[in-house]
Structure formats: structure tokens, C-alpha cells
Amino acid sequence: MRILYISDSSIPSYSANGIHVMKMCQAWGEQGHAVTLLAKKTNACLDNVEDIFSFYGVTKCFEIKFFPSKPFSGSGRVYNLLLPFFSFGNFDLVYTRAIYPAFWYSLFGKPISFEIHEPFDTKSKWLANLFRFIVKREVVKKWVVISSPIKNYLIESFNIPQSEILVAHDGADEVDDSHGVFGLAPNEIHVGYVGSLLKGKGMDLIFELSKVLSNVNFHVVGGTEEQLLDWKNRTLPSQELVFHGFIEHARTVEYLKAFDILIAPYKTEVFVKEESNSNNIAKWMSPLKIFEYMAVQKPIITSDLEVIREVLKNNESAILCNPDNLQEWVNAINLLSSNPLEASKIAENAYRTFTNEFTWSKRAKNILNFIDR
């Protein structure tokens, strides 16, 4: 099958959406499909990355086409405006998770499959109107969403038939022994977090935990230089809190495998941008972090949110804690650090769930099977 994936992500960049897009293209490419990724060059792209495939830890089994070839001020808007002139072609499937490609294909009556990660009417009136236009045109071949609340939203707000919507949670790659392990001090407890330090991702809770649990080493992998400087300036010498900084995605597994416990303390409000008008995605999200944690067979402590419970079961494949109750997180860390049998049980159950349901390969196959049926 000839597949065109039209991306709105800045590639390469710090963002998780770029990881998602690259991993999906890899999954389809490894399954024998001829995949072309159409991506934009913006000032948000990292300019010191020599090999994009290596940066994301994906095999070079698909083609990437950039427009424009070099970023400039406003290049993202130019990309969105000129999409019809360079994206139409001879493909069996056109797929996107961005609203402007879906709009242009709807305007010209061309079929497209649309993956949605949050409602557009929560972003702006303009995007809400674009989305309503897309729905009315009825050219979207199939709808893919990352959580059940988004599916329910599409059904209730737009009367999209349930049979045309697939819930496909995010995923991760299976981890083999070829990956190294980051060296940490033996005979100590190491609790790790890998991800961004944006509002709602839980850095403030990790900070407080490091004050209370002086016998535990807390590790944070991720964050911009500005964010790291801010948190380092707040950290007291008595806190066992180590900031490793941003690590290219291909190497994060080395850190994940090194930690004893993995933590994802999402708040009830989670944001993907620094701007004050950024949207709260806590109700809709399917965090990549969770699946990457599951893949390395380490016990997970995360927040007791509806979207998390779609994937993990409390005291079976993770310990789910109230994001506003610090003591629950303290108790969970103490339990797993003092009870290796319980920790092993939770890690193994999460890994079994992951391999059965949540690899990128399975996700890619499920989506194509759904679209083709």
C-alpha cells in the first residue's frame, strides 16, 4: 500500500508528537508499505541533528519530504496554505493528525483518514469552524482517536457513527537487549521520570517527593535549558534530585532500563505548550510515556485518571495515585522499593499488557485493518 502521512509536527524537535509520527511511519514501513512522510520545516525544529532517523531511533524504511526545505519566520503557515499544491498524488491512503490537511482534502473532495488527539473546538473558534466543515463534507474515510472520551465526544457532538471511529491508544517499540543501560549507583533506590517539564506533567510533585524521601534518588530526563535552570535553582543540597536534561529519544530507553521505579505524576490539568492559552489535555490524552514505561518491564506509579485507567489497572499493572495527594505517592514508592515481589508482579503484568495490545506494530496493523474493512 502507498501511504502518505501528512504531519503538522516539527521534526526533529523536543515534542512527543514528532515521536508519534515517526514511529507510526516506521511501523507501516516495516510492514512492507511504501510510506512517505510529509513534514514541515519551522524554527521549532532542532538544527543540530545530523540523522533524523537515528535521533528518533527508527529504521530508515520510509521517505521524508520537507516543505519548505529550510525554516523561516512563518514557514509553518506557508506549509498549511500550500498543502494542496504538493500533497495531492497517487496514494492508496492519505493519513493525518493535523487539521489543515484534513480541511484541504475535504475542500477538494479527496478521501483522507483523520487521527484526533483532542477536540479542536477547545483550541479556537477558527479551528472549531474548520473541523465542523470537515465533518459536514463527509470525505474523512475513517476517524482514529487516542482515547474513549474523544470517541464519545465525536459521537455526541457531531453524530459520527460509532462504526467509523477507532480508539487506538498510543504505543511504544518493543525493547531488546541491544540497548545499553545508563550506569547508576548500585544498592540504592532510583525513581525515574522521562518526559517534558511542562505544566501538569508532575515535576512539582516529583520535587516535593524528593524533599520527603531522602533515601530515594529521583532522576528527571527531559526539559529545556530554561526549565532545568529554574528547577535546579529551587533544589536544596539535601534533595536527591538529579536532572539529566534532554536526551534524544533513541537513547531514553537506556535510562528507563536503569531506574528501579518509573513515575508519571500527571495532574488533572495537563498542557503541551508553555503559552497561557494552551489547552488542558488531561481528559483526552494517551501518554507515550506510559507505554514506553510498560515496554521496559519496570514497576509504574502514575496518576489515577480516567484515560490512564483505559490502559493500566490499579495494583495489577501499576499503582494509581491521586495526583493531589502526596502521601499516596510516598506510600506507593515505599511499597515498591521494599517489596520486590510486588514490584516484579506489577512490572510483568504491565509488560504483558503492552506486548499484547500496545506496540506500534499492533497499532499500525489495527488502524489499516479498520480503514480497509
From TrEMBL:
GO molecular function terms listed in the Swiss-Prot or TrEMBL record: glycosyltransferase activity
Keyword Glycosyltransferase: yes
Limits of the Glycosyltransferase subfamily 4-like N-terminal domain: 19-173
Keyword presence, Transmembrane helix: no
Coiled-coil stretches noted in the UniProt entry, renumbered to this chain: none
Domain of life: Bacteria
Alphabetized UniProt keyword annotations: Glycosyltransferase, Transferase
SUPFAM superfamilies: UDP-Glycosyltransferase/glycogen phosphorylase
Start and end residues of each Glycosyl transferase family domain: 180-352
PANTHER family cross-referenced by the UniProt entry: GLYCOSYLTRANSFERASE, TEICHURONIC ACID BIOSYNTHESIS GLYCOSYLTRANSFERASE TUAH-RELATED
Name of this protein: Glycosyltransferase involved in cell wall bisynthesis
Organism: Roseivirga pacifica
